[in-house]
């Protein structure tokens, strides 16, 4: 105790010690329930290459399911509508993501021979994790050696099986590191130099939401300072689909008709989603862009049921109630549930029963909306939970819950009139009368492992106006190749033509502080967003300007493009021109120091344009 407490009477000393103990207990209790901030995200889902495209797909009510292309398997050989035909799949459809066989191996410093043995799931995780960090406005090299954790949901083994089907003499040194699930997370930690927990999770369809639960716990336990959480799924070979077809799990018409009377199975799909997480207190202190809050989560197991893969309504009820308790949220505060919603007749009924038991006893101010992203993109299995989470985050941002597709007649075995649920056949405005909009996300694995996460809108922090006292700004862009830099310029031009309201100060702040710096470089001095658009168009046309610098940083740094700096500029103009010169030269610039006294905000901007080549084994 301090000298002050030494002068107190024994009774007052005891009361002071009790007060200090109570304060410590309160601190520990608050840490157990501290919200976790989502500060960045990236994704690839059928029909969507990034979060903005994913939202457009959901909001417009598009169905991204197509026939399986030849890169995956030949549907002429494997499709047969007759369920009883041996070796055949009852549906020719799937939800597919582009570039199955292509990858930017040089960007991630992976040799071509190793890339051939690298599971497309690991490839996708590398790219989408990079994009998620850029979306968060964090340059990857800033995290080297940091206590960042990686938690990945993954359950597919298609590529490994394909590689093992070759002759033994063709097995190389990269087979195991390229395909074991442990390396899905381990490779990310290795590439970025992260030093905290690195865990791959396989609980089947609940994998990525279980990974999210583990990340929340790790952050709250102070085991990591930041976390990358994701899920991935790739469909490479037909064998698993043949198995699921024989188990009568797949929809013959290739549509997830969640909660509809005609629900007849799910459609398999691919996908990858990654979110970047921090404790809320750290995110606020670091001035991160907060997209949403994770209030609480829970995981449990079905135990003994009528069959190994049969769901358990009681366990589903329990995991939702446990997540609500962990989040310190009442059922009446929930206005939207992104359901597991596979579109199987048994699974849908059991899920509705569980939801009704949790929410029918509460008195919500408005009906509870039951959403189902699988009706748009299919069931991405190990990535399905993260697909649902990203959908909820986007719905919070845009204030609208997308419609469920393929909803013609709600399941007639459910008495919907007596339940507080709405199945959205059209987009639903999400402007709750509650102080905070809160949603739940469910994922139930056929392994019997269930997960639920409570998500709320970002806190309404004080909005500070950007101190735009500068007469002009500098925008820096860079890439590993000249072609990639040209593509990045084009992407910025398209992006700014679409999002015309963006602040120039925020654009330059995010690009300069939140991106890695590569050898092919571009610096633009500009005084307005419209002027920046004009100069980007000039660069695309190949025109020159006194305010545009381009160059390549050589290894010896002897050759670079420098524009002569005139002597009659103001002090700031002289400084900003010098910044452009040393940037093109390859010198290190501490951008955070330059923006130290500004109130600039991190915003979403185009991410790195990967330059992919084909890396695939020969049969």
Question: What do these coordinates show?
Answer:
- With 619 residues, the protein is an alpha/beta fold.
- It folds into two domains: 38-457, Peroxisomal Thiolase, Chain A, domain 1, CATH 3.40.47; 473-483 and 490-603, Alpha-Beta Plaits.
- It is 36% helix and 17% strand.
- It is built from 21 helices and 20 strands.
- An eleven-stranded mixed sheet has the order 6-5-7-8-1-9-16-15-10-11-13, sandwiched between helices. Strands 17-18-19 form a three-stranded antiparallel sheet, sandwiched between helices.
- Helix 14 links the parallel strand 10 and strand 11 (368-371).
- Helix 3 (51-59) packs across helix 16 (384-398), helix 6 packs across helix 9 (182-192) and helix 17 (482-498) packs antiparallel against helix 19 (529-541).
- It is globular and about 75 Å long.
- The protein starts with a helix and ends in a 5-residue tail after the last strand.
